[in-house]
Amino acid sequence: MSLNNSSNIFLDSVPSNTNRFQVNVINENHESSAAANDDTDPPHYEETSFGDEAQKRLRISFRPGNQECYDNFLQSGETAKTDSSFHAYDSHTKTYYLQTFGHNTMDAVPKIEYYRNTGSVSGPKASRPSLLEIHEQLAKNVAVAPSSADRVANGDGIPGDEQAENKEDDQAGVVKFGWVKGVLVRCMLNIWGVMLFIRLSWIVGEAGIGLGVIIIGLSVVVTTLTGISMSAICTNGVVRGGGAYYLISRSLGPEFGGSIGLIFAFANAVAVAMYVVGFAETVVDLLKESDSMMVDPTNDIRIIGSITVVILLGISVAGMEWEAKAQVILLVILLIAIANFFIGTVIPSNNEKKSRGFFNYQASIFAENFGPRFTKGEGFFSVFAIFFPAATGILAGANISGDLEDPQDAIPRGTMLAIFITTVAYLGVAICVGACVVRDATGNVNDTIISGMNCNGSAACGLGYDFSRCRHEPCQYGLMNNFQVMSMVSGFGPLITAGIFSATLSSALASLVSAPKVFQALCKDNIYKALQFFAKGYGKNNEPLRGYILTFLIAMAFILIAELNTIAPIISNFFLASYALINFSCFHASYAKSPGWRPAYGIYNMWVSLFGAVLCCAVMFVINWWAAVITYVIEFFLYIYVTYKKPEVNWGSSTQALSYVSALDNALELTTVDDHVKNFRPQCIVLTGGPMTRPALLDITHAFTKNSGLCICCEVFVGPRKLCVKEMNSGMGKKQAWLIKNKIKAFYAAVAADCFRDGVRSLLQASGLGRMKPNTLVIGYKKNWRKAPLTEIENYVGIIHDAFDFEIGVVIVRISQGFDISQVLQVQEELERLEQERLALEATIKDNECEEGSGGIRGLFKKAGKLNITKTTPKNDGSINTIQSMHVGEFNQKLVEASTQFKKKQEKGTIDVWWLFDDGGLTLLIPYILTLRKKWKDCKLRIYVGGKINRIEEEKIVMASLLSKFRIKFADIHIIGDINIKPNKESWKVFEEMIEPYRLHESCKDLTTAEKLKRETPWKITDAELEAVKEKSYRQVRLNELLQEHSRAANLIVLSLPVARKGSISDLLYMAWLEILTKNLPPVLLVRGNHKNVLTFYS
Q: Is 390:223 a contact under the CB 8 Å cutoff?
């Protein structure tokens, strides 16, 4: 295809989703390039528009004047390639390239789809091209599937038609609320409760206008600080459903979130009963006035409450949209009732209202009511405790966070504005009622002033009424005595009653919606596995119908009790505990200094949040100390439960961030202190490969490092770097997870290297952090050294030399069966995989049969595709039959049993320590640590040391004295005086036969032949070398005889590792030493420290 100005032609193939960056197809042939170079105008980039996929058209954008080129293109008879016919790597076939903003690159431009979580409800997650894809060379002749370019452009492929349609259908009926309807209305309705109408006037009468304003102000401080902290948390990332539970759990982790989530959901459920009973009590009072009681007051409350909660449940189950409409209607009624009160304060009072204490605005009444006048048993804190529940309800909007269009914007804006509006209303009502109504009034219109009477500063007296007898006998009216003051003051009394109904029903409705939503979010996270049943949602809005039923049953139970005076303070404390944790979450996230903590809401301070948390805790005890204690006990119990269960979730909590900061600070602090011998502990690099492939080696190392030292399981990947790095990175998480699952306190580390020795050398030098660096290398004995390639033997012995060069101790562990069980694991994994495929296929066929033909064969393939059942399955059936026919013995049962021998509790016996050479004490310290472990506590230490035959008793006393100074308990000490005698002939013959295949025998040949053999086989053992170290060879053989004699029945042998001097001892001879030394023995640990003290007898 040839086309001028081809740089201006863009492929716009209208994919099925709109999550692509702009992709351009360019022509690279010479003519078009020349034409493009001649055109000096900058290319005109036109934003692609994405239409319906059914169009499947090629859109071409061109500058004015290029229409002719376009026409020529259409008439040329060549068809344009759609983006499904080329591949991102296809730079060698024809002339097509993927372009990102005009550059020939696969690099993706920043897009929100790359940062979404899998399964995000706000849109599909895309995967950007990996670093490997943009770093490696472009592959030639890559076979690509249709629409591969789409996958590259989107990073994750395009969902199928069916999935896309389903997603659109799912989104079509979802109801989402803005900040006014979703947050502001709900918070205002929940904050404006019954307290506004029937208790606020009493609070002003007791505390006075001055302290009353302070009480309101203190309550608002608590809610405002909590609102600020909540706003900061809400704007630090996308907020999902779950309200307070979601905010706390994602910030502090599942332990705090899980404990407070259950409490908070239960509190909301019981709050439904509280508000409904408040409504029922008001209705019963009206029935009393009209003499229309049904049974008796208690049973009437139960009947009315039950009917009410059923109606509210129906509204809630009908859907969030109906519930929101009901809330708006209730808010309108509430606002009319409040406005009705303020209008009533300026309507001139009549004689009846004056006799009840209402005189409109009077300065004398304001002055008289400004100070407190607490009655018997009341005080500032008791009055505060009664008012504070009226200020709660700020979480009403956050609790339905999953149903908000933009929770990050709606929750802060709606909550803070609701706090401000309701605070103004509370203050206005408190001041107005304090300036209009006296504290005590008789209600008798005839109690007027008698001429000549001394008023003694009484405001009512100055206004013509004598209420002095209220000092000696109780009165029914006034701020102190009448809870219906607002109804009396208002312009139209029944509107206040309607306001009370509105306040109670709206709060009950909000709680009835909040409890299931929070509970559903808690159950979805599967923190409490027994509650998973309630996680299911129904309909477009994922309504928690099961949660609604549970909340209904809890509310009904407490309504039938009809005595909530005891449980009410506990509920208030549950809410306050949530507030305290929200404040603490904000403080904790700020204190952890995680780079991920960057809230868009900047009006917060971590110390102010901490103050808010402390204030909430203090208010809990002020309201009711025993309820606060109960709350903390329940929360602590749930916290311990969740911590013990350790739910498999990772939310990037501030607890994790603080743990990291603490670990980093402690590691840095360690570097400022020099190492001390008293604090020495084995810190081991264990060459296990994959930790699951050599479990016995890891178990014995973990036995002396658990809770005391560092343990790093290391693996070296040898081969082409690209393949090694890919394999290494893909397995890191899995192998570390295996360690955690098996409760092994160790780290996993891996390196890719050109050879095994280079990899180990890198690990020895670079592993660890600061003072937490390995000081001991633990390796398994190379059992197959006689059959292994020479390079493997050189590497094996070489890493021992490298460890000594780096002044790192070495431990070589030998067990009779060897350590590597990788072949057994492979067979087990294959069996498990094939069994899973078989079960999946059976399930698919069974489901298809149950459908009875609906969907036909197409449905079967669809399901099989979802289950990853492919047409290669029949081939695997042969594998199943082959493997199942294998005898169990072929799995090497002895090897499997040997791999678990250090997991078991060791039988009563001994650990024999052959401390032949002083290496600083590591040979003695490791077995001592083992005896401290539960699995080894029944094993006693027996110490074997070399000595002179004529000084056995003296040396035994000296060694006992040294061990007692080291405070190491032992069962016995043996002085071996005949180590250096020659071994018997049979043992020596075994050794000679062992090394025979590796000897050079140069002394039997002429000089020229001998020199040639040395050059050709430098690894062989020369006669000169064997003669030079003959005494050492004797010693290794003799030691095996002594070990067979003294320690054959030991549970474990710990033996000084012989050191091969570099350049003097050949690798094969050294391996022969180790072989003959540890042959036919129980498990052996060959230990050699770095010859620096690890034991001390100084305090």
A: no
Instruction: Indicate the burial class of 917 (C-beta count within 10 angstroms; 0-12, 13-18, 19 or more).
Output: middle
CA 1071 to chain centre: 48
Q: At 723, phi and psi to the nearest 5? A: -70, -40
What are the Cα distances from residue 495, in Å, to 60, 197, 434? Answer: 68, 11, 21
- The rounded Cα 68 to chain-centroid distance in angstroms is 60
Q: What integer pLDDT is reported at residue 790 of this predicted model?
A: 92
pLDDT < 70 positions in the chain = 1-105, 115, 117-123, 131-132, 134-175, 319-320, 451-457, 562-568, 849-892
Question: Are 759 and 717 within 8 A, CB to CB?
Answer: yes
DSSP conformation letters of 328-346: HHHHHHHHHHHHHHHHHHH
In the chain, the largest separation of any two C-alpha atoms, in whole Å, equals 150
- Residue 1070: name the closest of 1082, 1061, 1083 by CA: 1061
- Whole-angstrom Cα distance, residue 124 to residue 623? 48
In angstroms, the CA 1044 to CA 1050 distance is 10
719/1084 Cα distance (integer angstroms): 32
Rounded-to-integer distance, Cα 510 and Cα 398, Å: 11
How many angstroms separate the CA atoms of 74 and 270, rounded? Answer: 73
Residue 857, Cα to own-chain centre: how many angstroms? Answer: 42
State how far the Cα of 51 lies from the Cα of 770, in Å rounded to an integer. 58
- The rounded Cα 864 to chain-centroid distance in angstroms is 33
Q: How far is CA 587 from CA 235, 604, 657, in A?
A: 15, 10, 13
Tokens of 526: 């599967």
Compute φ and ψ for 259, nearest 5 degrees: -70, -45
Two tokens at 1095? 């034991």
Query: In DSSP terms, which residues pair with 809 in a beta bridge?
Result: 776
Cα 663–chain centre separation: 18
pLDDT at 441: 86
Could you tell me the strand order of the sheet in which 972-976 lies? Answer: 747-753, 711-718, 684-687, 776-780, 809-814, 1084-1088, 1052-1056, 909-914, 939-946, 972-976
Contact 927, 1054 (CB under 8 A): yes
Q: Side-chain half-sphere of 863: how many Cα atoms within 13 Å?
A: 16
How many whole angstroms from its chain centre is CA 325?
Answer: 37
Of the candidates 952, 921, 968, the residue with the CA atom closest to the CA atom of residue 1091: 921
**Cβ pair 622, 255 in contact under 8 A:** no
Lookup: tokens for 773: 């660096």
- Cα–Cα distance for residue pair 413/435, rounded to 1 Å: 33
SS3 774: coil
Phi-psi region of 539 (alpha: psi -120 to 50; beta: other; left: phi over 0): left
Structure tokens at 317: 């189950």
Of 779, 1044, 1086, which Cα lies nearest the Cα of 914? 1086
* CA–centroid distance for 573 within its chain: 27
Q: Write out the two tokens for 854.
A: 């609906």
The answer, as to whether pTM is greater than 0.90, is no
CB-based contact 970:1025 (threshold 8 Å): no
Structure tokens at 173: 């009926």
The helix (H) or strand (E) run that includes residue 131 is helix 131-135
Give the C-alpha separation, 752 to 719, whole Å: 8
Spatial CA neighbour of 1052 closest among 931, 881, 891, 918: 931
Per-residue pLDDT, 825: 82
Domains of the chain: 179-446+455-645 (1.20.1740.10), 688-823 (3.40.50), 909-1085 (no CATH)
**pLDDT on residue 935:** 92
Cα separation, 616 vs 578, whole angstroms: 9
Decide if 635 contacts 263 (C-beta within 8 A). Answer: yes
Strand, helix or coil at 816? coil
